[in-house]
C-alpha cells in the first residue's frame, strides 16, 4: 500500500535525503576512473620492474594498487609514489638498491592523470634519460621528487609552468657520487625558476648551472620560498648586495660545495632574520667572519667550513642563543684554542651541540673551558697542532656522542676515568697522535653505544684486553692499525659481528688466522690486516659485501679461490702482495665487475696470465712472480688502466700492439723479463699520460724511439740492460718533465684509491732505491737510464737542457768523443754514471758547477788531462776515475806536468800563496762542517717527526757526510804540504 504524505516535509528531511544521495554518488565514483587506470597501465608498460614492485597493478580498482592513491571524494588519482624502498647510500651495500630500482622510459601517458598532485620517482635508475618535457604540463602538481633517479641531461624549462608546485627535489648528488654512471643534470638559464610562484621547498643539489649571475635575484622573486638547497651546483658568484631582500620566510639556505669566489660574506644575508640554517661551506669566501652575523638571532645551524676565511671568531657568534651547530673547519683562526674561551662563554655555551674546528691551525693544549659545553654532542678538533693530554674537564661532556681528535700531537696516556665517563660516545677517533700507554677494559667498559673506534697510528699505544673479555658495544668500524695488539690474534673482536670496517694493519700480530674469523665477520666490507705475520689459507667464504680486501705483507699461503669473481661480486680493491700464494692467477678475477685495483705482486704465482681482462681496472700489479707467456691482448681493453706492473717475471714475446688501448697509462713497468722485439714507437703516441717507463733487463733490440720525448709528463725512463743500438736521440733533450726541478710533490696516480700506495725502484747512485708515492715523493724523482746497451756515438749536447734531471746513467755502452760541456748545465744532477764507454778528451771544467752531485763514475774510459782542481770533482774517491790512464791530478795518483810530488795539484806558486790558500780552505771547511752539523740536526729532527721523508733523504745525507770527509782530506793534504 503506497504511503501518502499529508504534510509538507521539513527542511531537515530534505537535507538528510541530499546527503544520502551525495554519499551514494560518491561511492559510485570512488575506486578508479577508467581513463586514469588505462593511463597507469600504459605508464607501467614503459617501466622495467625487475622485482615486481608493480605486481599489484592488476584488476579494475587502480586506487588499491601499490604506490597509487585516489581522492576519496572524486576518485581521481592524486598521488603516485614509486620511490625505491631501498635508498641508495655510499655507506652501505648498494645491491638492494640495484635490485629494487625501476628503470625504462617515462611515458607521457602520465598526462592522463588530470588531478595528479604528488609524483615521486626518486631513488630509481632510469639510465641517464632526460626529464621529459611533458612533466611541465601536469598543472596540478604540488609535489615533484625526481632525486637520485638516474635521470640526467638538461632540466626542461617547462617545469617553470608548474605554478602550483610547492615542493621540487632534483638532487642528484648521492647517485652521482655512488655510481658516476649517468650524465649530470644541467640548467643553462635558471630564469624559469622565477615562475614557480607557489614554491616553498627547492633542492637542486649537484645540478650544474650555466649562467648563475641572476640566480639569487630569481630566487628572491619567490614569495613563499622557505628552503633553498643548491649544494655543489658550480655556482661561481652571488651578489654582495640586493636592492630589496624579499626572503621574508626563508629559513634554510644551503650553498655549500660551489665555486663562489667572494671577497666577503654578502651583507644582505644578515637581513634575512628568518634564517635558521645557513650553510656556505666549501666555497671561496674570503676575509673575516663579520660581527653582523650576530644579528641572525634565529640561527640554529651555521656552517662556514672550508673557505678562505681567516682571523678571529667574533664574540658576537657566542650571542646567537639558538645556535646548536657551528662549523668553522678549514679556516685560519689566528688564536690558540684557550683564547677562544670568550667566544664560547656566551649564551651558546649551554646550547651548542655540534662544534667543528678541524684544520683551523689551532695550537696549544685542550683548555678546561671545553668541559663547560655540557650540551655538546659532536666535537671535531682533528688536524690541528694540539698538544698535551685530555683535560679532566672532558669528563663533564656526558652528552658527547662524536669526538674526533685525530692528526694532532696529543701525548701522554689516556685516563680511563675520563674516557670511561663519556657513556654516550658513538664515534671516538684519537688516531694519528703521539699517545702512549695501554688502552684496557677500564677505558671502554661503559661505552655501550660505541660504534666507531679509531686508535690507529699511535705507535706507542697498546690495546690489551683480556682474551675472554666480551665488549659491551657492537662496533661498525675498528681501526687499530700501527698500534700494538700483541702477537696473538685478538679474540675479543670475535663477537663484533656488525663490523663493516676492520683495520688492523701493522699491529704486530704473529699468529695463525683463526677459523672463526671468516665466519664471524659476514658483514665486513673493508678489511685490512696487512703488514703483520699472519699465516694460514685464504678464505673461500668471505662476505659477499667485501669491497676492500687487504691481506698484503703477511705469510698467507695456498691458492686463490678459483670462484673469487663470483663469491665477491662487490670487490673493488684486492691487495694480496707479499705473501706465499701460488698456483694460477684465476680467470674469475675478470668477472669482478667493479674492481679497480688488483695487486698480487711478490708471491709465487706461475703459469700464463688469463686473457679475459675487462671493466674498470685502474691498477694491475702482478710483478715479482713466476708468470710466463706473453701479455694478453685483452689487457689492451682496459682504457681506465693507469698502472701496469709485470716486472720480475719470465714473460716473453713482444709488447702487443693492443696495449695502445690503455690510453690512460701513467706507469708501464715490464722490467726484468724476457721481452724481445723493438721498443714500440706507438708508446710515444698512444700513451700521452705516461710518467714512468721501465723496460730494463729484457732483450729489446733496435733503436730507441725518438718520439718518447713527446710525452710531456715522462720523468723516469729506464731502458737499461737490453740490446738497444744506434745513437742516443737528440730529442731526449726535450723531455719537459726533466727540464724543470719540481718543488711541489703530487701523487703519480692522481685520482686513484688511497688504499693502494704506488712505489717504484729506481737505480740511482749505484744502488737500487725504492721511492713511495704516499706523500708524492715519487713525483719528484727524475731519472734517465740507458746503461748496459750497445749505444754508440756522442753524448748529445741537447741533454744539457734537462736541468731538472736527478740521475743520468749512460754506462756500459760504446759512447765516444768528449763529454760535452753542456753536462755542467744539468744543475739538479745527484747521480752521474758515464763509466765503461769509450769517452776521450778532458773532463769539462763546467762539471764543477754540479753542486748537488753526490755520486760520480767516469771509470773505464779514455779520458785524459787534469781533473779540474779546487772543485766538486775532487771530493770523490779515486775509484771514480780508474781505468782512465791519461787522467792526472788529485785524487788519482798520476801527477800532472808542472806539479810537485806532494799532492799532485800544486803549481809553481810561492809558499805564501799556498799558505793563504790553505787558510781559505780551512775557513771554508769550518763553515761547511759547522753548517753541516747544524743543518744535519735540523733536518734529522724534522725527519723524526715526518718519517715518510726519511727514506727519501737518508741516503742523500750519508753521501753529504762522505763528501765532506773527502773535502777534509784534500784540505789536510794541502795544509800539510804548505809546510813541507
TrEMBL record:
Pfam families named among the record's database cross-references: LRR_1, LRR_14, LRR_8, LRRNT_2
Key words, A-Z: Cell membrane, Glycoprotein, Kinase, Leucine-rich repeat, Membrane, Receptor, Repeat, Signal, Transferase, Transmembrane, Transmembrane helix
Entry-linked InterPro entries: Leu-rich_rpt, Leu-rich_rpt_typical-subtyp, LRR_dom_sf, LRR_N_plant-typ, LRR_R13L4/SHOC2-like, RLP23-like
Main location: membrane
Protein topology in the membrane: Single-pass type I membrane protein
UniProt-annotated location(s): Cell membrane
Membrane spanning residue stretches: 921-945
Signal peptide start-end: 1-25
Stored SUPFAM superfamilies: L domain-like
Disease resistance R13L4/SHOC-2-like LRR domain span: 315-496
Top-rank taxon, per record: Eukaryota
All copies of domain Leucine-rich repeat-containing N-terminal plant-type, residue ranges: 35-71
Family: Belongs to the RLP family.
Name of the protein described by the UniProt record: Leucine-rich repeat receptor-like protein kinase
